[in-house]
Amino acid sequence: MKLRRLATRDAGFEAGLAALTRHAALQDPALQEAVRAILADVRVRGDEAVLEYTRRFDRIAARSLAELEVPKAKLQEALQALPREQAGALREAGERIQDFHSRQVQSSWDYVDQDGTRLGQRVTALDRVGIYVPGGKAAYPSSVLMNVLPAKVAGVRELVMVSPAPNPLVLAAAALAGVDRVIGIGGAQAVGALAYGTQTVPRVDKIVGPGNVYVAEAKRQVFGQVGIDMVAGPSEILVIADGRTPADWVAMDLFSQAEHDEAAQALLLSPQSSYLDQVELSMERLLPAMPRRQIIAASLEARGALIETRDLEEACVLANRIAPEHLELSVEDPQAWLPKLKNAGAIFLGRWSSEAIGDYCAGPNHVLPTGGSARFSSPLGVHDFQKRSSVIGVSQAAAARLGKLAVVLAEAEGLTAHARSAQMRFK
Predict the structure, then answer these.
(1) Among residues 203, 276, 309, 424, which is most buried (max CB within 10 A)?
(2) Residues 402, 135 contacting (CB under 8 angstroms)
(3) Active site residue 77
(4) Of the listed 236, 259, 308, 325, which one is catalytic?
(5) For residue range 330-358, what is the model confidence (pLDDT) as tens digits?
(6) Which among 67, 33, 36, 71 has a CA at the least distance from the CA of 51?
(7) Which domains does the chain have, with CATH numbers?
């Protein structure tokens, strides 16, 4: 495994960093057109189209979508059949996730100003949300908890989960989290069914959850018809280390994201060149024992790097430029450096805070912005399942005073009907 090595002092550093962190948007014309055709077909033919694509892509044959819906009793059976240790871990993780997200709930508020006008904000939950969960051989019960529980805390009335051939562990998590319906479909056709509605699948207000490139592109294309959480890219981790954390720990933290897929990114920033050497040696020693070593090696060779910085201050500046999904602050006094960091999906403080704990059971959401989008977006949370409406109740006295302001501004914009609408209430 050949790992890229960079140093901020080097003349070619900026070009090297740009090449390393350049995020190409999903712009495969053939993929876009294939997804567009599937979505258009599902919109017109509904269940029939979904069944056809499910047979073609997932090799699942059914006469109706009703056959692919998982009865609620089976969800409970899956939960009860879990080994005690797994069930206990799932329950405790769920409790921690629910507790964290319960603190995010926004409430409605209003006030009355001096002229008697009532102004405020009304916060309401979305009615129905679709949850996409990868299925088949993969099992991601943590994704179920992270996507469903914030919606439940927000007060979403109905949660519809789609997953192709859902794994028993996924079904157990769905039962624990309180999913209302589970339908065994996946791919772009499942996204289309949720976005437009079919004879069996109800139309939702928002679609959340991870998926492959077809799912990501389908979510991108239906945005506007429905809301989406984000178009997520490959997983990312950036570790800032002062050189005192055991090298094996940091090596395995880098592996933990690299093992997701070949396009994942793992970066280590440290002012200690000798420490970078130690971590590199640890990685070479530990890699052969990893079951997903080929994926890890491909990821690290393509997008991984060990970066020597002048000091920890520069490492923080660099981290803010990169804006990673996960940022581990593996230093002696993480609290002292935290104020210098603002662009990251999640920040892990200190040597004991592995990203893996955040993925499963710390409590905060593991659905995080990727591809540098942490510069302007946030982790999935309760706020993603609530919406705000402004409340405006103008008093008679204010209709004259504010109306005159509105007339001046409307006439300046050349919008006569606006001006007269306001004017009629005080003339």
Answers:
(1) 276
(2) no
(3) no
(4) 325
(5) 999 999 999 999 999 999 999 999 999 99
(6) 67
(7) 29-105+130-227 (3.40.50.1980), 233-375 (3.40.50.1980), 394-423 (no CATH)
